C-alpha cells in the first residue's frame, strides 16, 4: 500500500539538505507576505496571460482577481473555512449580471479540497506557467521557520509528480485534470535568472517596508502594516461570506411563503435559515473586529445610553433556541432597576451573541450557561459562568488550544472552530466601552461604564 502524500511531506523533501537562517513566526509571516507581493507584482504579472496552474494551502495566496481568473487552481483548505466552497459563488447578490458571471468564474476556477491534519498548516504555493515557475512555502517548527523558495527543474518536477499523486489519492478526477493541465502547458521554459532576481528584490522590499530611523520602530510599523493588510482582506472575506448567506435566507423565506410542504421539509428549511443567520452574525462580528484593527473606525465612537437588561430580555429567546439545539441550558440572573450603560447597542448585541458562542463551544450536553448582571461601583458587571447540570458545580472552561492566525482570528485545527482571538475580543469590547477579564473559575467577566444619571 502506498504511503499517503501530504503537503508537509512535500515541504520536508524540498527542505532536505537546505542550509538556511531560521527566523521566528512573526518574521516568517512578514517574509511570506512580502514574497507573495514580489512574485505577483514583479514576475507573475508578466507571465499569467499564457495560462497555467497554481496549488496552495491553506488559503489562496493571490490578492489579484486576474490571476485567480486566468490560472486554474487547487486549494487545500481546512474544513473550518467553508466560505471557499464554490457552491456559494452563484449567489452573489449584486445588481450587475455581468459581475455575477465574472465573480462566478473567479471563484469556480479553482477546486477546493479538504486539508487534513497530516498536511500541516504552514502556507504553501506552487505556480506553473510556460515561462515562470516557482514553489514558495514556510516550513519549520514554532519560532524556527524558514522561507522556502524553489524554482529549479528537479524541485519543480518532484513537486508536480507528488501533487499529482496526492490528487490521485484524494480525488482521482481532479488528478486527471491536474495532469492534463500540466501537459497542456507543453515544455516549460525554466527561468534560471528568477532566483538571482527574487532574493535581492525581496530584500529591498523588506527593507523598504519600515522607516530607517529606528530598528524597534521598524519592526512595530512593519507588524502594524501586516496586521492592517490582513484585517482588510478579512473584511472583504467577511462581506463575501455574508452576502450569499443573506441571499439564501431570502430564498428560504420566499419558499416558505410561496409553497406548501410537509412539516419535515419546512423544519429543514427553518434549520438552514437558523444556521445561515448564526453564520451571518459570526462573520458580522469578525467584520467589526477587522474594521477596528484596520483603523477604519475609531474606538469609543457613537457610544450612547442603553439598557443592557432590556437587550438581554430581547435576545434571550434566540440564545435559548441556539443553546437548546446543542443540549445546553441558559439561565439569566438580572436584578430589577439596573442603571444604564454607555455602549453601541447594535454592535453590542452582536458582541454578546459572539461571547456566548465563543464560551459554549465544546461544552458537553447538559451544561448550563449563566449570565449574571450586577452593579459594581461606577460600572455594571457582566459574568458568564458555566455550570454542570448534574453536579451543580462550576465547570472550569477548557483552555483554548487554538492558535491565532493574524490579528483577528483564532483557529483550532482539531475542531475546525474559528473564533475571534482574545486580543481582538478585548479590543472590540473596549471600543464598545467594556473591559474584559477571563478567570479560571468563572469564565468571563466584562465591566461596562455606567452612564451619567442626568
UniProtKB/TrEMBL annotation:
Signal sequence region: none
EC number, as in UniProt: 2.7.13.3
CDD domains found in the cross-reference section: HisKA (cd00082)
Leading EC class: transferase
Gene Ontology MF annotations: phosphorelay sensor kinase activity
Family matches, as SUPFAM superfamilies: Homodimeric domain of signal transducing histidine kinase
Protein name, UniProt field: histidine kinase
Organism: Prochlorococcus marinus (strain MIT 9215)
Amino acid at each position: 500500500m502506498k504511503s499517503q502524500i501530504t503537503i508537509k511531506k512535500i515541504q520536508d523533501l524540498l527542505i532536505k539538505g537546505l542550509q538556511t537562517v531560521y527566523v521566528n513566526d512573526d518574521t516568517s509571516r512578514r517574509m511570506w507576505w512580502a514574497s507573495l507581493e514580489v512574485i505577483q507584482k514583479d514576475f507573475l504579472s508578466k507571465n499569467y496571460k499564457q495560462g497555467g496552474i497554481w496549488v496552495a494551502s491553506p488559503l489562496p495566496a493571490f490578492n489579484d482577481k486576474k490571476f485567480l481568473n486566468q490560472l486554474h487552481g487547487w486549494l487545500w483548505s481546512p474544513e473550518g473555512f467553508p466560505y471557499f466552497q464554490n457552491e456559494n459563488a452563484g449567489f452573489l447578490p449584486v445588481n450587475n449580471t455581468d459581475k455575477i458571471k465574472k465573480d462566478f468564474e473567479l471563484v469556480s476556477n479553482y477546486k477546493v479540497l479538504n486539508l487534513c491534519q497530516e498536511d500541516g498548516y504552514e502556507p504553501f504555493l506552487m505556480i506553473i506557467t510556460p515561462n515562470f515557475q516557482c514553489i514558495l512555502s514556510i516550513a519549520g517548527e514554532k519560532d524556527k521557520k524558514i522561507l522556502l523558495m524553489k524554482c529549479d527543474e528537479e524541485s519543480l518536477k518532484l513537486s508536480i509528480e507528488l501533487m499529482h499523486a496526492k490528487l490521485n489519492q484524494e480525488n482521482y478526477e481532479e488528478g486527471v485534470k491536474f495532469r492534463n493541465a500540466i501537459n497542456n502547458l507543453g515544455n516549460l521554459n525554466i527561468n534560471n535568472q528568477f532566483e538571482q532576481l527574487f532574493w535581492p528584490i525581496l530584500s529591498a522590499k523588506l527593507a523598504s517596508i519600515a522607516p530607517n530611523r529606528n530598528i524597534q520602530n521598524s519592526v512595530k510599523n512593519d507588524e502594524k502594516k501586516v496586521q492592517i493588510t490582513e484585517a482588510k482582506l478579512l473584511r472583504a472575506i467577511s462581506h463575501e461570506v455574508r452576502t450569499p448567506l443573506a441571499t439564501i435566507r431570502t430564498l428560504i423565506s420566499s419558499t416558505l411563503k410561496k409553497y406548501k410542504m410537509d412539516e419535515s421539509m419546512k423544519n429543514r428549511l427553518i434549520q438552514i435559515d437558523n444556521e445561515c443567520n448564526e453564520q451571518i452574525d459570526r462573520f458580522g462580528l469578525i467584520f467589526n473586529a477587522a474594521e477596528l484593527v484596520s483603523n477604519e473606525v475609531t474606538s469609543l465612537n457613537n457610544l450612547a445610553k442603553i439598557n443592557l437588561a432590556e437587550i438581554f430580555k430581547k435576545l434571550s429567546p434566540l440564545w435559548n433556541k441556539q443553546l437548546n439545539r446543542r443540549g445546553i441550558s441558559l439561565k439569566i440572573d438580572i436584578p430589577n432597576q439596573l442603571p444604564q450603560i454607555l455602549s453601541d447597542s447594535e454592535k453590542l448585541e452582536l458582541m454578546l451573541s459572539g461571547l456566548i458562542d465563543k464560551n459554549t463551544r465544546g461544552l458537553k450536553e447538559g451544561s448550563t450557561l449563566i449570565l449574571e448582571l450586577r452593579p459594581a461601583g461606577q460600572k455594571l458587571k457582566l459574568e458568564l459562568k458555566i455550570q454542570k447540570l448534574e453536579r451543580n458545580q462550576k465547570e472550569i472552561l477548557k483552555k483554548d488550544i487554538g492558535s491565532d492566525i493574524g490579528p483577528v482570528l483564532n483557529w483550532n485545527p482539531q475542531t475546525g472552530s474559528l473564533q475571534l482571538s482574545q486580543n481582538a475580543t478585548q479590543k472590540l469590547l473596549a471600543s464598545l466601552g467594556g473591559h474584559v477579564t477571563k478567570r479560571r473559575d468563572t469564565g468571563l467577566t466584562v465591566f461596562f461604564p455606567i452612564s451619567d444619571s442626568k
